[in-house]
């Protein structure tokens, strides 16, 4: 029995090594945007009860050092002062355009419906998306994201991180999970298989949107306006990854475990609608890591070939550390790397809890 467990441990270790070798596609990537551009851009922000966040984070968008852009703010049936805040910005800056969405019985609490109305409002063919609680981390955010549209690219994947709180372990967990997700979707895209993007920092052309009939194929799902859209329309030829530090946006993270768990449940609820190959690859990655840690603990407890087991585990962890360190340096998340074994184990079992919770019932609204 112990020999069989050791065999499975070796198998899952090899699978993990293969994945992290593939992740070097992003960790070692030195691709730069090919110069500045002057494409007409529409920045689209969907806001639901985001009055305070718009006050804080809309100014950095309006202060972008870019010559030709408008900002479409969608008030998605807010119940706070979001509409008034948008109207105030609109009075001060002619680039701000308002889309006021009323509750619709057929599309109630459906962000995709609101986004579709915003996209139809946009006068420019190049669209950049972010959330109301996000802030660009430089005045050149639009410049770098727009530059990704060169060479006939119609989808640009950016990095949407979270603000740092050095005193919070939950903050480190959230940012580590975000880092790992980015490593995956950037690496897959670099290898010719873009499978998702994040709405906190995503761009595509209006032609791409209309050619794939917008969100029509998954409009019935409350989430997935970002990842399912990319999963459906992204390919090796039309997708560009933009990981320049000045192209980053950062969001306000959850401050309690319950809220973050609910947020991740909502994000995970659409993964079952990915393409079959993507579900397989993502599922195998998770299962391998899950059983790697389980079998490592069991084999060390029974002390079966423990020297060999520790040697293999050390090799796996070393490769992971290198990939995390290089990737974190690119995305400016270096403070989470040294905690990665603990954060990874906690994240794996949290994801297991999310899977169980979503099997019982799925989240129904985007907010």
Automatic annotation (TrEMBL):
A single Pfam family it belongs to is: Glycos_transf_2
Q: Does the keyword Transmembrane helix apply?
A: yes
Example of a GO MF term: glycosyltransferase activity
- The Glycosyltransferase 2-like domain is annotated at 42-175
Task: Spell out the InterPro entries in the cross-references.
Answer: Glyco_trans_2-like, Nucleotide-diphossugar_trans
Respond yes or no to whether keyword Nucleotide-binding is given for this record. no
Give the source's domain of life in one word.
Answer: Bacteria
| Transmembrane portions of the chain | 6-26, 280-302, 308-325, 337-357
Sorted UniProt keywords: Glycosyltransferase, Membrane, Transferase, Transmembrane, Transmembrane helix
* Similarity field: Belongs to the glycosyltransferase 2 family.
Q: Could you identify this protein by its name?
A: Glycosyltransferase 2-like domain-containing protein
Species = Salegentibacter salegens
